[in-house]
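Hello again, I could really use a second opinion on something today. I've been staring at a protein lately and its backbone has me curious. Please have a think about how the structure follows from the sequence. I owe you a coffee for this, so here goes:
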Amino acid sequence: MTMGEVLDRTGDQDPYKVAFHLIAAYLNIKGGNGAVISPAAATVQTITTIWSEWVAKGYYEPFAGAQWGSEQIKTYLISNGIVA
């Protein structure tokens, strides 16, 4: 999906707005705000991996046996200060 396609998604396709949060996280890290975002919390690679898995499977697997759905991904990004 391109960023344009993500921005065109309706609420019922992404009720937790995970796509928007992942785009914001990516831009925050790339845009210089990475200095305040701990690499232990997220890197560009982390965000692209979350994106790839979420788009392909509908969830992100942070470690074996754990599956984070949309709500858990959004909560992680916000609670770690990666996005507001």
